[in-house]
ATPase, P-type (Transporting), HAD superfamily, subfamily IC
Amino acid sequence: MKIHQFTADEALASLKTSHDGLSQAEVEYRLDEYGPNRVEEVRGESLIFRFIKEFIHFFALILWLAAGLAFFAESQQPGGGMATLGYAILGVILINGLFSFWQQYRAERALSALQKLLPYYVKVLREGKAGLILAADLVPGDAILLQEGDNVPADCRLLEAFSLRVNNATVTGESLPQARDAEPSAEENLEHSRNTLLAGTSVVSGEGRAVVFATGMHTEFGKIAHLTQTAVKTVSPLQLEIVRLSRLIALISVSLGVAFFLIGRSMGLSFWENFIFAIGIIVANVPEGLLPTVTLSLAMATQRMAKRNALIRHMPSVEALGSATVICTDKTGTLTENRMAVSSLYLGGKIFATTEVRRQPQLALRYRRFFEDALLCHNLKETMVAGKWQSLGDPMEIALVRMAKTCLGETCAYPKINEVPFDTDRKRLSTIHQTPKGVVLYCKGALEMVLPLCKQVQTDDGITPLTAEIRQDFIRAQEQMANKGLRVLAFAWRELEAEHNGEAQEQDLILCALVGLEDPPRAEVPEAMRKCREAGIKVIMVTGDHPHTALAIGRQIGQIQTDNPVVITGEQLRKLSETQLRLALDAPDIIFARVGADQKMRIVAALKKKKHIVAVTGDGVNDAPALKLADIGIAMGISGTDVAKEAADMILLDDNFASIIAAVEEGRAVYENIRKFLAYILTSNIPEVIPYLAFALFKIPLPLTIIQILAVDLGTDMLPALGLGAARPEPGSMSRPPRPRNERLLDWRLLLRAYLFLGMLEAVVSMAAYFFVLHSGGWRWGESLESQDPLYLQATTACLSAIIVTQIVNVFLCKTPERSVFGAHLFDNRIILWGIALEAALILIIDYTAWGNLVFGTLPIAPEVWLFILPFGLAMLLLEELRKFMVVRLRR
């Protein structure tokens, strides 16, 4: 017989374990024998293939083409120096590919390390004591406790189950949740047995106790090699934009190269002069550092987010979060502290403070069934922490149990014999217990869901009929509590006959009390709400709480600013058409209360159809569909279920709404940093292209050689450019609205500033320095110079040095594209400072060492050349400051 065909006791005996679990010594022995409970990951792309990809992307292919043409030219005209150019371009490809691969590899390793901040824990019984262990430490024979929202960590046989349903889609493909119980099964196939839970599936509702019979690669999950990491690699808007940008720049580069080759031919230049000209244009326009900069920017933002309690699961989500226009947030635990305490009780037609009830023991005697209800109707587990037993579970239920124990002065541990689980449609939980006076059903939930099931009410005078007047009294009491921001629950009970078949018994109940629970708002949330308003991000509260409670909390935290906010309940939402819902979402302040999981998904879908970038928070198994549908799904790290975390793009380690806003700020910085990088890199293209235009149009000696262009693009510019990509968020980034969905990384504003303003300034400086040296050496217009003439070498050195000096100035100008350089922290980016130091060191090596002179075709320049260049750098700074001043004036 197979394990699922045994009774529960026979299954335990076959695994040589018990209801109380294994001893620690036996656990260690079995862990050594069976190994950790892990399914081997399906191999992704090999390191070698990923390495090769860094050398065959669009930019690299253009450079390969340029190198090939250079070697071809050398074969046709030996001794022309084209071989040196070919080797230099190959060096560019090699260095850029190695750096990009290393940066991507480090980013992935860092992301993997960050995700280990959230290890996967399981509730386990060992030697009769409940505790949390890592799922990897499970062994066959372990007794585990499971409840709604848990992932099943290994193949298990149920020992007891209370209204348990599981989602087996990942293993069997069944789309609907399947009921499970602990009875022996006659099924031949394990996966179809009603008493087995398979690794990789998830608990949709209910709870149970099970014994593990297979772990790791021995599970059904492992046998079919199904990944536990089922997340699909998505293509973010930023990735699509980078692909578009890469192709656009590559097309421009090649087109310019071909165009200027034809222009040169028409002007009578020789084929080889034209050839050098065309290759120079192509190499000058390819931003080799773009792809590693994007990776670095995302990786740095991801690590900074983790320090601010936002764990990114998919790196492209970093930038997507910065584009968010709407955040749909839960209330409990996200906007509030999730530190529940019972504040008020409605008993016998009066509202009491909890302290009053504690001082009146007669109330506990008169309403004993209510206190038993609060004490027993829950899904808490007892676990040993630091030598003391503590309750593990929902803070609301912990608060109710604590209140009941205090008021009763005792604990009644009546065994639970069945349960009707809570879900977002029922909005109530019922448990059935064997008490000394018989079987009793205890129920708690939202008043509107419990009240229709009640026919009697418990008062000071005993059990009486529930009249319409008393119903209204309960409704008014609920509203009074909710208006104070309290979460209100109704309690009811009834005695049962011997038969107790679950949900069918939830009728003819006796309504006994209302409880108002206080959950204070987090101190950081009002400031986070203020930042959202400044940043143009709309916050919509989507909660299962009473609308009055939600509205009261919304006003306390500053989400609600208007006098007449729109509050829509789940019942009202069901009656709204798609058009009506979209129109309602235009309200400046809106709250959704008493909504279910399917309705949350509908809200997200409507917002996306209105062209919003939507971020959604969630913690329950029912939130997973909405988290998947959203542009950015955000799961709670503390209270969130495993299912919610797997569906999310980001996990809040502290469950705090304020951490979302910090993450949005980092996300916005990514996009802006890439734009800063582009402005910086594209600016240097103009002083690199202009010398070739002057060479072709005005018949002057070529002011800048291709090898010197490479010295700028790959040598001196690379580290400062990467520093711009890794910059921290600008102070004013959260005072601007989210960028439009159709905004491009490379737009006309950036192109005009980089090419026609900063780039032209640099070109003027570099060409001025070039002619300054030539004229100082006695050169006159129209004279030709040999490529090894000392005057020519010094002139090209001056041109190159002028570009480096202006690029050092430019990195500070691009660092603060909107703010004045004089009002910014110029020295807070260590990568930029190291980059500037490297730039200065490299240009000195290129200008003043024999090795640098030989490789880059340079000669030392006199001090007066530097004195000629430096004022131009200062002038460039002042002109850019004037431009920023004028832009600010025009905006006002």
